[in-house]
Amino acid sequence: MHRLVFATNNAHKLQEVSAKIKGQIAVLSLDDIGCDEDIAETGSTFRENASIKSHYIFKKYHVDCFGDDSGLEIDALNGEPGIYSARYAGKHGDHEANISKVLLQLQGETNRAARFRTVISLLWNGIEHFFEGTVEGTIRPERSGSEGFGYDPIFQPDGYSVTFAEMSLDEKNAISHRAIAVEKLLEFLNKQ
Length: 192
Prior knowledge:
The protein is about 30% helix and about 25% strand. The protein has five helices and six strands; from the N terminus they run βαβαβαβββαα. Strands 2-1-3-4-5-6 form a six-stranded mixed β-sheet. β1 (about 5), α1 and β2 form a beta-alpha-beta unit.
């Protein structure tokens, strides 16, 4: 089985991707290869940040790898939080504060359209390939559900009456932005 390093320290992302790949490829974490560095996301787009992560791992460890960058884009906030989704309220990974900031900024706003976007940068035999996934939805006025992570408790995907946080991992993985991008990644790898 081919081994592929996922350039992330986010356990939730690793769980979602591993569940989606279901043993078709051995997905290794940064811990698995002894990498404990925090790779700085200094790009101005999801694509740039994903590429920074994959190139960092490839240059240092010389392994096939992929990095992703994902975030929430809210129309009424001109696409924010976007690439700053994980640190929107200041501290990286403070999901509660990030959600609170979004809800505060959307108070009284009728346009609650939003989307989750993921871009994956794969370095395969030293050549870079990109895969993107998006899921459209709306921002709920209050939190609902306890599954998932990040903005999942306030994001309701189009066509559903529940938030991502009210879905099981399998349900979310059937429709999520990350799942769509990973499906495209797998489709590419299966042709190699």
